[in-house]
Write a structure and sequence with these properties.
three-stranded antiparallel beta sheet, 17% strand, disordered N terminus, 272 residues, two-stranded antiparallel ribbon
């Protein structure tokens, strides 16, 4: 374990559990937004922490690989390379924990100041902004109301009163959604099917029935827009994550509002 370990995200009330891994490079331990609460007990991520090593020239090679960029897996390969505990599989990490990892990687490599160009949603003016990544924090979530080690949650739809069980999505789930949407696009280019495809992946059972045919039929034929909206809002509210908003003010029209921090491969390459 490196003696250069520093906590990046806010520790909250979590008691650190040291991960017994060795790295020849400086490493840091971050506290995951999920606190590891919903991972199985035998998953190393259930500790609620993740140890990452600092980026090196090897990782810069990954970020500049045209092949990996074209395949859309460049950030996955970056994360895989920087996780110290190789028993951890990035594809099974919840999206919220991946977000925290990418922010930590960026901060370790280049510091807290992130320069970006934001287009104003009102006047379309281009604004150069500097975002302080140190000010990002994890959402406040009451984990005590959920069963530890179980990625299953209950929700009653307000209109139909049907009881559904659902889960948080991992990177692997997102890839399955993307694959299904690509298949759907070959059938019909007019409707993306993103909402229904995502709902089918998230929902585990309807009124206690876990059969996939039942779930799919319910989403396609029975779920009202009112229930869909309420359910998706509930998921956003209860899902742990890093608060990825920052205070934006347009230099041209003075619009002030919260904006999402843009994050892609360029997130890891500061403007010079």
């Amino acid at each position: 374990m490196s003696d250069q370990i520093v906590s990046i995200t806010k520790p909250g009330n979590y008691t650190p559990v040291q991960q017994k891994q060795e790295s020849p490079f400086p490493t840091e331990i971050i506290n995951l937004p999920s606190k590891g609460w919903f991972y199985p007990e035998d998953n190393p991520l259930s500790t609620g922490q993740l140890e990452l090593k600092v980026m090196t020239a090897k990782e810069e090679d990954i970020l500049t690989s045209k092949n990996l960029i074209q395949k859309g897996v460049v950030l996955d390969k970056l994360l895989e390379s920087l996780i110290v505990n190789k028993a951890i599989k990035p594809e099974v990490m919840f999206n919220c924990d991946r977000n925290a990892a990418f922010i930590a990687i960026r901060r370790m490599a280049y510091g807290d100041d992130y320069k970006a160009v934001i287009s104003c949603p009102r006047c379309n003016a281009e604004n150069e902004v500097v975002i302080d990544l140190d000010k990002l924090d994890n959402k406040v979530v009451d984990f005590s109301q959920y069963s530890r080690g179980k990625n299953e949650f209950d929700f009653q739809l307000p209109f139909s009163k049907k009881n559904i069980t659902f889960k948080l999505l991992s990177k692997k789930d997102e890839e399955a959604i993307d694959a299904e949407m690509k298949a759907l696009s070959k059938i019909s280019k007019e409707v993306s099917g993103e909402i229904t495809t995502r709902l089918k992946m998230v929902i585990l059972s309807v009124d206690g029935n876990p059969e996939r045919a039942v779930v799919r039929k319910f989403v396609d034929q029975e779920m009202t827009s009112r229930d869909s909206l309420a359910f998706r809002s509930h998921i956003r509210e209860m899902t742990p994550d890093v608060d990825m908003n920052f205070d934006f003010r347009c230099s041209a029209c003075s619009l002030e509002r919260k904006e999402d921090i843009p994050m892609g491969v360029s997130f890891f390459w500061p403007n010079e």
